[in-house]
Amino acid sequence: MRRARRNASEGPARKPDYRTLRNPFPPMRAFSDDHIATMHAAALKILQEQGVKVLLPEAREAFHKAGASVDEDTEIVRIGSDIINAALASAPKTISVAGAIPERDITLELGNLVFQPGAGAPHATDRIKGRRPGTLADYNDLTRLTQHFDVLHMVPPLIEPQDIPTHLRHYATMNAQLTLSDKVPFIFSRGTPQVEQSFEILRDFRGLSDDAFHAQSHCYTIINTNSPRTIDIPMAQGLIDFAKAGQVSIVTPFTLMGAMAPITVAGAITLSHTEALAAIALTQITRAGAPICYGTFTSNVDMKSGAPIFGTPEHFRASLAAGQLARVIGLPWRSASGSAANISDVQAANETQFGTWGCLMAGATVIIHAAGWLEGGITVSYEKLITDIEVLQMVAELCQATNDTSSDLGLDAILDVQPGGHFFGTPHTMARYQTEFYAPLVADYANFGTWEERGSVDATTRATGIWQDILSQSNPINPNPDRLGGLQDYIAKGTAKGGAAPVS
Fold first, then answer.
1. Is the distance from CB of 147 to CB of 473 less than 8 angstroms?
2. Can you give the pTM of this predicted structure?
3. Up-side HSE of residue 314: CA atoms within 13 Å toward CB?
4. What's the rounded Cα separation, in Å, for the pair 86 and 455?
5. Helix axes 382-398 and 346-362, enclosed angle (nearest 10)
6. Measuring CA to CA, how many Å separate 228 from each of 255, 260, 267, 438?
7. Which of 60, 130, 174, 177: CA 20 to 30 A from 455?
8. 374 contacts 131 by C-beta, under 8 angstroms
């Protein structure tokens, strides 16, 4: 959806399809194919000889039954290449995920392109209220903004609603996602009790039987390993819970070069790949064919302050290398953009756009943190979400099929217009001028004098007006009254029983 820029009397508006995108760019390479093969082989060797630390006893037992070597004293699991290769063979290369309506279904596979806004931030910020700890009101607002734009395809864990206790927070976020959006929802892996309750809420709200829910993916989670080479209790349990339920896990080691991983791109990506392979293996050991996405989020740090930074050449190269490894194993994969800037300024825009292009040229399936992310994930900005959407919509335009027709060439117009003439009034122009070009969301193309007369409003200020306008509109989601009542009853009863505390 986009804000209308034309009067209805001027004719039909453009209606491009931003809901189903294929990446139009050929993937770039950071390293030679031989070096990528060496990195993959190194990861297999590390898993077999040094192993990974797995903190969850149930996960260690699953690995043991699959033939891995488990040292219970150190909690180190050494995984043979045969186990990894079997897991990669059984992991699906195409994953269908159902939204609330068929138009919101997505397919995760190499070549497809799915965008998400910034996620996981403890703070929110906007020009009106300033920077503050995230609240449920912010979570609801950002969910509605995510719903509004077709170029955003999944609802991520936008911000933490810190005014809701952690044992009840999953109720609030599930309620928001289901009543304010019809897109694919996110469920945190914070222990089996919260996960199972969230599954039940989603199943019942969608009107599904238990068998139907388990037969199709309807939601997803993000699994972050603890680099270097550790899978903690909630993450291991999440991999198992989601695999058993047939729901999507996106395995995403978050490695910072020089801090949590070797300082080189190749070294950091090799470590990330090692951890991802171990997590993928756990899902397939649990349930062969369980939906799983490969992922990585590797960037560098400011060696003076130790702070993570994004949108750098190293971040770009890391995305390219991860894409090469994803194509080696053949799985859909997730990469990430983002910015370390403190406010929505030129630095923030540059970092996010450069990071996004790294993901695009790497062939990422899912690109998260593509809109609104600031401070390396500490804050999501309302204004930056809007200004970043402009870039994502222009990328989506490049995904649209071109018209390879004779009329598209405009030969009649070329012959009609004499040298020194113009094309403003030709039939070819008049038939297309309202639909041929991308209609900007935020950009103002008025000349300086006109812009000054209108108040000299900059892009960030214009973005404030856009998100305020969207949030002033009524909620476009109209849930089934019976299912809405059932959702409210479930939450009320669960709250009365004490909810479910997160597991750590």
1. no
2. 0.95
3. 20
4. 63
5. 40
6. 8, 6, 12, 45
7. 130
8. no
Question: What whole-number distance in Å separates Cα of residue 42 and Cα of residue 368?
Answer: 28
In sequence order, what E strands does 201-344 have? 220-223, 230-231, 248-251, 254-257, 292-295, 297-301, 308-309, 333-336
Q: Could you tell me if residue 8 is inside a domain?
A: no
In a domain, 209, yes or no: yes
Cis check: omega of the bond before 291, within 30 degrees of 0: no
Cα distances (Å, whole numbers) of residue 167 to 130, 132, 140, 495, 496: 28, 22, 19, 9, 12
Pair 282, 238: CB distance under 8 Å: no
pLDDT of residue 215: 97
> How do 297-301 and 373-374 pair as beta strands?
unpaired
State the residue for tokens 């933490």. 160
Task: Give pLDDT, residue 4.
Answer: 38
Q: What average pLDDT does this structure show over 129-139?
A: 98
Count CB-CB contacts under 10 A for residue 9: 5
Cα separation, 399 vs 17, whole angstroms: 9
What integer pLDDT is reported at residue 12 of this predicted model? 57
With contact defined as beta carbons under 8 Å apart, do 378 and 121 qualify? Answer: yes
User: Helix 136-148 vs helix 459-472: angle between axes, to the nearest 10 degrees?
Assistant: 100
Q: Are strands 292-295 and 333-336 parallel, antiparallel or unpaired?
A: parallel
Task: Give residue 296's pLDDT.
Answer: 86
16 to 20, 364, 407, 417: CA distances (angstroms): 10, 22, 20, 30
3 state DSSP class of 415 = helix
Q: Which domain holds residue 319?
A: 21-30+88-398
What are the structure tokens assigned to 392, written together? 């994502």
Structure tokens at 372: 């609104």
Measured at the CA of 247, the angle between CA 291 and CA 219, to 5 degrees, comes to 120
For residues 156 and 103, give the distance between their C-alpha atoms in angstroms, rounded to a whole number. Answer: 18
Rounded CA-CA distance 199/188 in Å is 11
pLDDT surpassing 80 at residue 403: no
Contacts of 286 (CB under 8 A, 6+ apart): 62, 239, 240, 243, 244
pLDDT digits (tens, 9 = 90+) for 467-491: 999 999 999 999 999 999 999 999 9
What percent of the chain has pLDDT above 90?
A: 88
Tally the domains of the chain. Answer: 1
DSSP for 98-133?
--SSGGG-EEESTTEEEE-----BSEEE-TTT-SEE
Report, as an integer, the average pLDDT of 25-45.
98
- Decide if 236 contacts 282 (C-beta within 8 A): yes
Domain of 368: which CATH number? 3.20.20.480
In degrees to the nearest 10, what's the CA dihedral of 166, 167, 168, 170? Answer: 70
Q: What distance in Å separates the CA atoms of residue 450 and residue 428, rounded to the nearest whole number? A: 29
Structure tokens that stand for 386 in this block: 């809007």
Q: Are 213 and 187 in contact (CB under 8 A)?
A: no
* pLDDT 10s digits, 79-100: 999 999 999 999 999 999 999 9
Residue 78 in domain: no
